[in-house]
Amino acid sequence: MAAIKSMVSLSTKAALLLLLIAVAVQTQMTHSQSCTSELTNLNSCAPYVVPGVATTTPSSDCCAALQSVDRDCFCNTVRIAARLPSQCNLPPLSCTP
């Protein structure tokens, strides 16, 4: 009888663990989709970040898009972008003049 209770307890714990993992994955996917959408909105800023562009003052659409991007989303994207050269067997990018 104790073995059965132990097995039930173990399967309940395993089911709870699987449920927590599923919730964590779903939360991460939702955050990822939200981040992608927020970053896509930054396309309105593209004309203001191209070298040699005459207009350097961003539009209100660009500013609103930038304001709506979650800080973690933006910073994680920059970190990922900074890793790309090494993952492509290229030298690291240096942005110093």
What is this structure, in a nutshell?
With 97 residues, this protein is mainly alpha-helical. The chain has helices at 2-41, 60-68, 71-87. It is built from three helices and no strands.
Question: Characteristics of this structure?
Answer:
3 helices; mainly alpha; 0% strand; 97 residues
Question: What does this 3D model show about the protein?
Answer:
By secondary structure, this protein is mainly alpha-helical. The protein has a domain at about 60-90. About 70% of the residues lie in helices and about 0% in strands. The chain is built from 3 helices and no strands. The longest helix has about 40 residues, at about 1-40.
Question: DSSP strand (E) fraction?
Answer: under 5%
Low-confidence stretches: none
How many angstroms separate the termini?
74 Å
Count helical runs.
3
Shape: flat
Instruction: Average the pLDDT over all residues and give the rounded result.
Output: 75
Subcellular location: Secreted
Family: Belongs to the A9/FIL1 family.
Main location: secreted
Domain Bifunctional inhibitor/plant lipid transfer protein/seed storage helical: 35-95
